[in-house]
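Human: You know discrete backbone vocabularies at least as well as I do. Show me how you would write down a chain together with its backbone fold. No explanation is needed for now; the record alone will do.

Assistant:
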Amino acid sequence: MKYLLIILSILGLHIHGESTMEFSEPIKAMEFAKNKTYKALIHTDKGVITCELFPERAPLSVTNFIALAKGGFYDGLTFHRVVTNFVIQGGDPDGTGQGGPGFTIPAEIGLPHTEGALAWARLPDGVNPDKRSSGSQFYITLEEVPFLDGEYTVFGQTLDGQSVVKKIAVGDKIQKIEIEIK
């Protein structure tokens, strides 16, 4: 039964109604300084989740996440999906699991789904054979989930606040996401 629930939860990482419209011009990764660390501070109703971003492994994903965060896209959105012992998911402007900014981004698959991994949701393989990532919906893993490896783009890792991640409930707000570069 546990495995059936896990399989059904995996299917929920797909976004069934998001537009597959792409940028009018191909997304270009921003210039990342080699000697800098890029962090996202996700301010929520339950506290702050600090994630290190991995621009060297997922430059397009990190560029997109930083652009949305700095532009205030995530401010006031909710975590619309929480699956016990699996993931919390947010970043949908509709709050339904089907919305997004109107574009997808190329897959940058390669990092593992350790506990606290920050990754993009995406449309299912049947309509998205290239595994392109959602333009805005992200999830954070509640525990290690290696069966997702090779399927979704991981672009960050929780450094501090995994206890906050575990307190998130459906409907909790993302107050804002700050980007810190040091």
Summary: The longest strand covers residues 133-141.
